[in-house]
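Quick note —
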Amino acid sequence: MKPTVGVLAKFIIKPGMGDEFMKFVNEGLLVVGRQPVTTLWIGFRITDTKYGAFAAFATEADREALLAAGGPRLAPKYGYIFAEPLSFEKVDIVASRIVAS
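Predicted structure written out below.
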């Protein structure tokens, strides 16, 4: 199915917390792995303290299912690593190209 909606997450962490952030991301990836409705999930680093993640879904219900189980649910456990409140923005996908590997 072609993705129609997504979530763009933004994370600003405290200096020196990169290893702890990777634990957060890897735990989040395990949650994503248990959600068969996620079309695409990418975690990325912008700088040493600025990170992000993007997930795409075929339906609004699929997006809500991951938001109910994913990053927003894990955030309190890892709250000590974040320098600013987390941002989870819902987006509409207007164009996409996903190449199967």
